[in-house]
TrEMBL record:
InterPro entries on file: DUF4916 (IPR032582), NUDIX_hydrolase-like_dom_sf (IPR015797)
Pfam families listed in its UniProt record: DUF4916
Gene3D superfamilies named in the record: Nucleoside Triphosphate Pyrophosphohydrolase
Keywords noted in UniProt: Hydrolase
Recorded GO MF terms: hydrolase activity
Superkingdom as given in the UniProt entry: Bacteria
Phylogenetic classification of the source organism: Bacteria, Bacillati, Actinomycetota, Actinomycetes, Micrococcales
UniProt source species: Protaetiibacter mangrovi
Protein name: NUDIX hydrolase family protein
Length: 187
């Protein structure tokens, strides 16, 4: 094993330039440094660009509970934020979602997730993570993939309700409300 940077061991790779980590490597990294994620709130907009519907994923979490969540995932080494957003939108919503990403995406919020409840509104039992959150218009058809069970479309008013907020895991209800506020449709 070689050493890279400040003494961090570089694990052997089956393929050169692989940006994926094995489960063991990921656990090792998660225990030592915050990881960078992107999160996306898919929306449908009218002809004037006003948000008319908000997409939220239904998914089974690690504990086997059915919860609502947002499109999210890690940014790989050497990957642009724009490419990471596109990859995770396509992975979670299907290849025909047609996300409308701007040439230079700017997050509406930076969310910091901690494994210890109470340090912020956002909790992730696995790790300390920093997430760049975006509102992304989508125009296509949707076939949720990976561990997503379905994509539910709701109005901004429904997505703003306390009951809906409570159905989202890890503080993502707070993030969803911030997304709605950032586009002027918080009910």
């Amino acid at each position: 094993m070689s050493t890279v940077g400040a003494g961090i061991p570089e694990p052997p790779r089956d393929e050169p330039n692989s940006a994926w980590l094995s489960d063991g490597e990921l656990d090792w990294v998660r225990g030592r440094i915050p990881l960078l994620y992107v999160e996306a709130v898919p929306v449908r907009v009218d002809g004037l660009g006003v948000v008319t519907q908000v997409g939220v994923l239904l998914r089974a979490n690690a504990a086997g509970e059915i919860t609502r969540t947002l499109v999210s995932g890690r940014v790989m080494y050497g990957e642009t934020i724009r490419d990471a957003l596109f990859r995770h939108l396509e992975k979670d919503l299907g290849p025909m979602a047609f996300p409308q990403l701007p040439p230079s995406p700017v997050p509406f919020q930076v969310a910091e997730y901690f494994p210890i409840p109470g340090l912020s509104a956002y909790v992730d039992d696995r790790q300390h993570a920093v997430s760049l959150a975006f509102v992304v218009p989508v125009t296509g058809t949707f076939e949720p993939r990976q561990d997503a069970l379905e994509l539910t479309w709701v109005t901004p008013a429904e997505a703003s309700s306390p009951a809906f907020h409570a159905e989202l895991e890890g503080g993502r209800g707070t993030l969803l409300r911030a997304a709605l506020a950032s586009v002027g449709v918080l009910g």
